[in-house]
Amino acid sequence: MKNFSETLVRRLRFRFTKLMEQDAFIIIMSILTAILIWFTISVIEYPNIRRQITGVPIVIDMVGTYADEHNIMVSSASEHTVTVEIEGARGEIGDIRADNLTAVVSAESVLSAKDYVLPITIRSSNDRVFSVVSINPPTITANFVEIITKEVPITADTDGVTLADGYMIDNVVVSPAVVAVTGSKDIVDRITDISLNIPKPGATSSSFELAVGSSDMVIYNGNVQIQNVASELTFDRTDFIVKVPVYRKQTVDLDVTITNAPETFSVDDFKNTLLFSNTSMEIAALDRADALTSLNIGTIDIRQVNFESGNDMTFEFSAENFLPEGYENLSEIGSVTVTVPFNGMSKKMLMIPSNYLQPINRPAGFDFEIITSGIQPLFIGPADQISALTREDIIAVVDLNSTPITSAGDLKLTVQFSVPDYPDIWVAANAGVLSQRVTVTVSRTE
User: Fold this and answer.
1) Which residue of 250, 251, 262, 337 pairs with 277 in a disulfide if CB–CB is 3.0 to 4.6 A?
2) Number of Cβ atoms within 10 Å of the Cβ of 366
3) CA–CA gap between residue 144 and residue 65 (Å, rounded)
């Protein structure tokens, strides 16, 4: 047994001696020894280290500040990250990264909307202990703006809509009609309205409705478009309903109706003498396929055309009264005046005795007697016809059936005139009396 042990020792000593004689072994042992020595010196002799960390994110702390309470917010900053050099125990900061640190900028000193140069402090997100050697840059320049909200009217731009010939768009309705815009005061204060682009392909001849989103918003300051600000704003809503009424437009001639003219009176000749302040009018109707041939603006009672004091007679008609329902007044004409010129006209009063009056339509069972001795109507017409007019040219009738007769008594009945040989003559009101009337006594027949 003793011989075996001695033999094993001699063999190990021999092999170790051989290893020591090899270069590779010596190199490996040297490296391991150097590492061990370096580690021992680093830990024992140099326990603290310095590290430079780039890309540390900047955060501006607004919580509880005057600026936060008064809607003053950061608009832009000169830097978004910093480079930090820190010092601390190797075990504390040896593995620290940029995302473990925050470069904090306090807004405590911000009291108004302007540029501020603010210092930076470094915080650790994982409670590591270290000291800050340097921060590069040590400060940032931050622009602060006041944030406001105001309501802005919403309109629609229909220039992109193609219309069929003879059609137009008017009174577009956007719902809701306003939008609350929030953003920097210097931007929001400039906004006067927001328009929505309304594209619609094809020729349109009828009204339509569509939904429009915020991507179609165009922001204006008066007539000037404000470019590239939508991304800096927020809106209380971004979807809208737009109703687009489509009208058929046309130009119509204006006309009047002549009432209470004599049976033989030439209404067309009389109309040809009238002077209209507007002879035509442009109008539009919603979703109508038919067209008006003309537009009647009202009536002229011929009895009222008496050329009092020898002057022209003027009649005024309001557009809001004669424009049919559903039509738009494109000409924006508030009223139309119609003048009956006195030039070339003349007047004459003639006494018509009762025996010239012709009763007509006698009801059975009654007798009638005109007890008015006569009447004196005012005749108006072209000067040459009035000059030639005599009592014999006038037909004056009393319609006995114009008022229901059930018993005897006296009645006031209207006299109707016609002048067949002079169709341009009419009977006008005189002394405030529109129609000439006579008293007729009615009695029952046996």
Assistant:
1) 337
2) 15
3) 13
